[in-house]
Amino acid sequence: MTNAPSTLTEEEAIALADFACTLAAAAAEVTLKHFRSDMSVDNKLDGNAFDPVTIADRDAETAIRALIEQHYPDHGILGEEYGEKSGTSQFKWVLDPIDGTRSFISGVPLWGTLIALNDGEYPAVGVMDQPYTGEQFVGRPGHAEFSREGQRKKLSARTRSGLSEAILGCTDPAMFTDAAELEAFSNVSSKARLTRYGTDCYFYCLIAAGHADLVIEASMQPYDIQALIPIVEGAGGIVTNWQGGDAQNGGRIIAAGDKRVHAEALNILSRVT
Question: What is the residue-wise DSSP string for 40-53?
């Protein structure tokens, strides 16, 4: 499933994308104060497992939620840090204030603020904002763009004939908790030209920008992927789960700039049940 028709008009999509950028700016005021600073890091998990969260994650989501509730009080909200708030309309904002908290606490600027608007059927608007580098990627139906220092550029994924020409990204192979998942990923990786790790949300945007070709991940949540779907698809790419279906609910994800690369990788990944 890809490029599902939106219930939004073009004018509505543009206005809501602009508002999503306003939300990203509010988050940036919080995150930039804490990035590369001496801050405490909490662990969401018990034992030896590690899922970090910081005051920057929590306060950035609080700032985003406050603006949504002020301007669109009927919209629902789903965020990583504070869960779900039901709305009275079909619209729902899906938020990850810092996607890539491990990168954030390590001082690596590959994290980003993810903001999506789901129109009740599919993610219609998506923003990935990296305020430290000043880069912002925005997607809406039929369009994706990059902006930095006031300059905007339309994004277009590049063409590749197959995996042998593809640059593949994955945040961490440890996310493949099932042996069959890891084997399938390794099989695809062995056929790709190059594989890069530690890429978080940033690599999806590099697909949209025509610099990379494929992302394969697993154990994803809706707030990890929904903002990235309109960006990749708005640039002409494709995002699905490993069975070729709707990716918006997370789980096992594959994103590609060229349908031929997607199809070749999917032929391997879809064997995992």
Answer: --EESS-TT---EE
Residue with the two structure tokens 């990204």: 169
| Final residue belonging to a domain, choices 100, 129, 154 | 154
Q: Which residue has the tokens 């997370």?
A: 250
Sheet with strand 76-79: strands edge to edge: 83-85, 76-79, 92-99, 112-118, 123-130, 135-140, 143-148, 151-154
CA distance linking residue 199 with residue 109, whole number of Å: 10
Q: How many CB atoms lie within 10 A of CB 162?
A: 15
Give the number of domains in the chain: 2
| Whether residues 150 and 177 fall in one domain | no
Distinct helix (H) and strand (E) counts, the chain: 8, 15
Nearest to 252 by CA among 226, 215, 228, 217: 217
Query: Could you list the residue range(s) of the whole structural domain that residue 54 is in?
Result: 10-154
**pTM of the shown model:** 0.95
What is the per-residue pLDDT across 218-246, written as a single tens digit (0 to 9) for each? Answer: 999 999 999 999 999 999 999 999 999 99
Contact 223, 134 (CB under 8 A): no
How would you classify the pairing of strands 123-130 and 251-256?
unpaired
Q: What is the CATH number of the domain that holds 236?
A: 3.40.190.80
Q: Which of 126, 154, 182 is the last residue of a domain?
A: 154
